[in-house]
Amino acid sequence: MKLLVYLATLLLLTSKLSAQVIEAKEAAANIGRYGYVDGQVYEIRKIANTKTTLIYIGDHPPKHQLAVIVKDNTVGLKYLKNYTYLLGEYARVRGTLIKYGGKPAIVLPNWEEVQTLDFKDESPKNYYKIRTELRQHLRQFVD
Fold it and tell me: What is the DSSP string of 6-60?
């Protein structure tokens, strides 16, 4: 019996350690899988009357490819200004893909689980245009 518990634990740990990297556009096809998801951050939004924050990757809602749900009790609307650096950046999040509002999502306990990646876009002009638009869009939520 102990051997069976040991093998089950080993299998679970091995599957989490060998997590694959999934592009945000492929997230919908990978619901239920554990892995790293990469994509460009388009919007950050606090859910009203809660302490939960959403990070939209791949596009603005409702066309986003992934919603990252950050359930950090220390992050409220006044703290979002600290995370505007994520807008327009490529981010990597790790977790199990679930469905949230019919779209792929990952639930994270805190902001530290969100990693930024090196610049991937081939068009710097497009990158800075999107980044500027995103920052202007976010200002309406934090000012």
Answer: HHHHHHHHHHHHTPEEEEGGGGGGGTT-EEEEEEEEEEEEEPTTSS-EEEEESSS
Provide the terminal-to-terminal Cα distance of the chain, rounded to the nearest Å: 59
Instruction: State how far the alpha carbon of 61 is from the alpha carbons of 58, 67, 79, in Å.
Output: 9, 9, 22
Region 34-53: mean pLDDT is 87
Instruction: Label residues 6-43 b or e (16+ Cβ within 10 Å = b).
Output: eeeeeeeeeeeeeeeebebbbbeebeeebbebbbbbbb
Task: Provide the β-strand partners of residue 94.
Answer: 36
CA distance 70 to 136: 22
d(CA 108, CA 15): 19
Kindly give, in sequence order, each residue whose CB lies less than 8 Å from that of residue 13, ignoring residues fewer than 6 positions away.
none
Sign of the alpha-carbon torsion through 48, 141, 61, 54:
negative
pTM: 0.68
Residues 6+ apart with CB under 8 A from 43: 54, 55, 56, 60, 61, 64, 87, 134, 137, 138
Output 129 or 88, whichever has higher pLDDT: 88
pLDDT exceeds cutoff 70 at 109: yes
